[in-house]
Design a protein that fits this description.
By secondary structure, this protein is of the alpha+beta class. It has a domain at 1-68. Helices cover 48% and strands 22% of the residues. It has helices at 42-51, 75-87, 97-142; strands spanning 3-12, 15-24, 27-36, 63-64. A 4-stranded antiparallel beta sheet has the order 1-2-3-4. InterPro entries: UCP021328.
């Protein structure tokens, strides 16, 4: 079982972020954690990594890693593909595979949260309706 781990520290305004990348058996996944808003120095990064709970990392789903199967493309084709990607709204400001996966994970969490909140809203409306119906019955019995 071949396993690689990479740590990249990058700046995504306004935060400095630690990007944890993992490649296992040609499967790629990524997780991130916020370090701070000010630029971290060597000692701060060391403290962050020493005190960090690696079990709390939420990695994205596994994606096949096709680094080995890169095909040669001419400069013009790569340039056209880059322009096309820049106009694609989904990955307009995303610069790496890791950031694309993180963005997809964020979108999935957002969809789940919306579904849960919608279900809560429906449940609350049903409860209010049941209370109104019960009050109607109680008033009717009173007369």
């Amino acid at each position: 079982m071949k396993s690689e781990h990479h740590l990249t520290i990058l700046f995504e305004q306004p935060f400095w972020i630690a990007l944890f990348e993992r490649i296992e058996n040609d499967q790629y996944c990524v997780a991130r954690s916020i370090i701070s808003t000010s630029e971290p120095e060597g000692a701060e990064i060391t403290d962050f990594l020493n005190n960090f709970d690696f079990d709390q990392l939420q990695y994205t789903g596994l994606v096949s890693n096709n680094q080995a199967t890169k095909e040669k493309k001419s400069f013009k084709k790569r340039q056209k593909q880059t322009q096309k990607n820049m106009t694609n709204s989904r990955i307009k400001h995303v610069y790496s595979k890791a950031q694309i996966l993180l963005k997809e994970q964020l979108e999935n969490v957002k969809k789940e949260r919306k579904a849960v909140s919608k279900q809560d809203k429906i449940t609350a409306e049903q409860r209010k309706f049941d209370i109104r119906q019960q009050k109607k019955k109680d008033r009717h019995k009173g007369h």
